[in-house]
Amino acid sequence: MTIEIINTGSELLLGRVLNTHQQWLCRRLADEGHDVVRQLAVPDDSASIEGAVRESLGRADWVITTGGLGPTSDDLTRERVANLLGRTLVPDPAVAAQVRNFFESRGRPVPARTFVETLIPTGAQVLPNRHGTAPGLALKVSPNPFRAAGQTSWLVLLPGPPRELQPMFRDEVLPLLHRESPPGHGCQTRTLRTSGLGESLLEEALAGPLAPLVTKGLELGFCAKIGEVEVRFAGRGASAPELLAEAETITRSVIGDCIFGSGDDLLEAVVVRELTKARRTLVLAESCTGGFLSHRVTNVPGASAVLLAGFVTYANLVKETVLGVDSAVLVSQGAVSEPVARQMAEGARRLTGADYALSVTGVAGPGGGSEAKPVGTAFIGLAGPEGTTVSRQLNPFDRETFKFATSQQALELLRRRLLNLSQP
Amino acid sequence: MTIEIINTGSELLLGRVLNTHQQWLCRRLADEGHDVVRQLAVPDDSASIEGAVRESLGRADWVITTGGLGPTSDDLTRERVANLLGRTLVPDPAVAAQVRNFFESRGRPVPARTFVETLIPTGAQVLPNRHGTAPGLALKVSPNPFRAAGQTSWLVLLPGPPRELQPMFRDEVLPLLHRESPPGHGCQTRTLRTSGLGESLLEEALAGPLAPLVTKGLELGFCAKIGEVEVRFAGRGASAPELLAEAETITRSVIGDCIFGSGDDLLEAVVVRELTKARRTLVLAESCTGGFLSHRVTNVPGASAVLLAGFVTYANLVKETVLGVDSAVLVSQGAVSEPVARQMAEGARRLTGADYALSVTGVAGPGGGSEAKPVGTAFIGLAGPEGTTVSRQLNPFDRETFKFATSQQALELLRRRLLNLSQP
Asked: For chain A, is the Cβ count within 10 Å smaller at the N or the C terminus?
């Protein structure tokens, strides 16, 4: 069973918007054992949209489009699909009532242009939109005029806004997909997330031990990201679950401490989970990461059980008055220095009574570097009941990548400390 | 002149990675006046990669691929392209020296597998990689066997890691593109970024005044995002610059105050710029946004000139001890309340002496809501020399979207305050 995704929107091809639908949809489909074999983005013009849908219907069992169902003049998908498949657009009274209700419950007048959202191609199933006005649509294309032997395909049209698309996909499309195309022995995958070894060294370490499984059909993939490398196993057929489990066992025995999680695990979630388990609290003191470390930790639901506070002490005076950093040290060593990182962590811990404090001070750039402390330099402090350590790092990246890499190293420093505590 | 982009990587189709290359490349190409007409993502298997490259070469003047040039066994692009075009892979001594130097300068042994990165298809131009080991490649496909009349196409292969791809594209690919295919009167675009009116109401407000320009060929697009709507103008031909300028003038006269910027302007950058211009300082006091507001402000280069500090007062005790919020009010009104937002802003301003203080307290969810204050409720405080105001908002989204929407409203509150000051 094959699936293709078509993302419509001139803003995608003009680079105005990041296409988050691709990852989100592909992840959900892969988790359910379905193969997405192609993703395509095309601009909002009639020929591109009709051409892309026709091509995909000529290959795939399921074609999912995103975008182009809204009320404005550049929303063309509904009309183009009706045209391509020779279906008439008919106003649907139930959809019209829902659209009216959406605006009336918010005390707003119904814009005249939303009328087009109530038009449904004949034979299409309406996928209700609980978070907006434009419904999704599902069409069984049977026989499919674009495929040899007129096989059946399904064509699903989803709205563009993520908060409308995502619940609609979960509540309406996945059940339909399971009813019409139950997943068989598709591709199964397992991903381990590691920190501490580069991509090449990881493959060198694992190639030998995993070779016997590769000959049995294990597919091995590596994906290097900032501050981590993902190791991905894939397998097909009935023996896949066993193959993946064996691969994981071997990998854990070879590079155990480097593995911080699997699947969707985020390092910040692992750290929050370990702190929660150990009933320990955390405080953060940031300079160059500017709140990004706090942001990552507070993205984790339940973070309030462990995180007491974050201090973004951007100005030196605030480092002194709030965290108690010694002004003489700030002058003699500079704000980006080992003793300042140490004093920031210890000061934040003292101020809040937290068990652990992480601090970061560095040169995010683009300006501010020197020969001794070039752009990208960061000092990361960790204070806890076992004492304080400071790690020096060099992350010579753009500003946002610098923030990510540095926060990743800070979280990894704490993860390793908590790991040592839990090991005998 | 048409361009197609092919992103290779099974991790893309499995939804393991967000495809940021598409937006990044499309944006740069659009800025230079080039049209990307199609973007495609395919998995790392030989047939998919060869098939996609063959198809795109059959249509486009330029085909740009990303990924698959690294040292691991799932990196297939170089080999598949050589196979498709009938070119031999030959080791390049200069590339080999550069790869050796990359590792030796870092004091690391050269992994044996990096050898494949030194193989170059005959006739290909090497695009040096200043931030990694695998070079990019540019191939003139002339005559192009996949196109009618054997027209010429260019095929450019770029490495997957963004910090390798981006400088290579800027330093090597753009100059090549300009040399070989100077931009003509392609599509020109202009984007205005607005806050305060929904997508339908914006189009209703602008449709009449812009109608005469639309008949002259102006293309009008709207893109609704969280907390903002982009209005996009596009035009073709020699008259495009004048058409876009007229459209902007009319739009500014109709919805002036709603426009916070144009092009790539971010609301946080606009706020930092306005504060810098007015020589005013800022402090942030966050609860539910958890550092994200600080993160956005500190993403702006030069933010240190205006931002003194950010306080992520997650625990109530820290709201009291650090910001001086009244414990009786915390008990009687709850942490998510108008007076607490007010006291957080005023306390942060007092503590640091900043001119302006923004505060946010709310229920990010998924837990913690009540009937009176459901998940998504946020109080946003703004304290300044003109006094303190508090705005109540409802952002019933997932946790990260909540943070974005709420921080957007906070920044917009400050922007409007600064706008009122600067207007007579």
From this structure: C
Q: Do A294 and B299 touch (CB under 8 A)?
A: no
Instruction: Identify whether the C-beta of residue A64 lies closer than 8 Å to the C-beta of residue A141.
Output: no
How many Cβ pairs closer than 8 A exist between chain A and B? 304
CA angle A335, B384, B339 (to 5 degrees): 100
Using CA atoms, how far apart are residues A307 and B421, in angstroms rounded to an integer? 38
Strand partners, A92: none
**C-alpha to C-alpha distances, B378 to A184, A336, B232, B338, nearest whole angstrom:** 46, 35, 31, 9
Contacts (Cβ under 8 Å, ≥6 apart) of B408: B195, B226, B227, B228, B267
Q: Output the tens digit of pLDDT for each of chain A's 424 residues.
A: 899 999 999 989 988 888 999 999 998 998 787 889 999 999 999 999 999 999 999 999 999 999 999 888 789 999 999 999 999 999 999 999 999 988 888 777 888 888 899 999 999 999 999 888 999 999 999 989 999 877 899 999 999 998 899 999 999 999 999 899 876 656 788 899 999 888 888 988 999 999 999 999 998 888 888 889 999 898 888 889 999 999 999 999 999 899 999 987 999 999 999 999 999 999 999 999 999 999 999 999 899 999 999 999 999 999 999 999 999 999 999 999 999 999 999 999 999 999 999 999 999 888 888 989 998 999 999 999 999 999 999 998 888 889 999 999 999 999 999 988 876 5
> Who contacts B22 (Cβ-Cβ below 8 Å, separation ≥6)?
A12, A15, A19, A41, B5, B7, B39
β-partners of residue B235 are B188
CATH class of A267-422: alpha beta
Report A:269-308 residues touching B (Cβ under 8 A). 284, 286, 289-295, 297-299, 301, 303-304, 307-308
State the smallest CA–CA distance between residue A190 and chain B in angstroms: 11
Q: Are B143 and B86 in contact (CB under 8 A)?
A: no
Number of Cβ atoms within 10 Å of the Cβ of B276 = 15
Which CATH superfamily includes the segment(s) A2-180?
MoaB/Mog-like domain (3.40.980.10)
Tell me the C-alpha distance between A355 and A305, whole Å. 13
Domains of chain A, by residue range, sit at: 2-180, 188-262, 267-422
For residue B38, the chain A residues in CB contact (below 8 A) are 13, 40-42, 48
At the topology level, CATH places domain A188-262 in Alpha-Beta Plaits (3.30.70)
Residue A333 amino acid letter: Q
Q: Which residues contact B43 (CB under 8 A, 6 or more apart)?
A: A37, B8, B9, B10, B12, B13
**Residue B184 CB coordination number (10 Å):** 9
Instruction: Assign residue B184 a region (left: φ > 0; alpha: ψ between -120 and 50; beta: otherwise).
Output: beta
Q: Do B290 and A311 touch (CB under 8 A)?
A: no
Longest dimension (CA), chain B: 82
> Any chain B CB within 8 A of the CB of A352?
yes
Q: Do A12 and B20 touch (CB under 8 A)?
A: no
Nearest by Cα to A348 from A307, A386, A295, A379: A307
Q: Which of the 8 DSSP states describes residue A171?
A: I
CB-based contact, A73 to chain B, within 8 Å: yes
Going by C-alpha positions, the residue among A143, A309, A408, A11 that lies closest to residue B228 is A11
Q: Categorise residue A365: left if φ over 0, alpha if ψ from -120 to 50, beta otherwise.
A: left
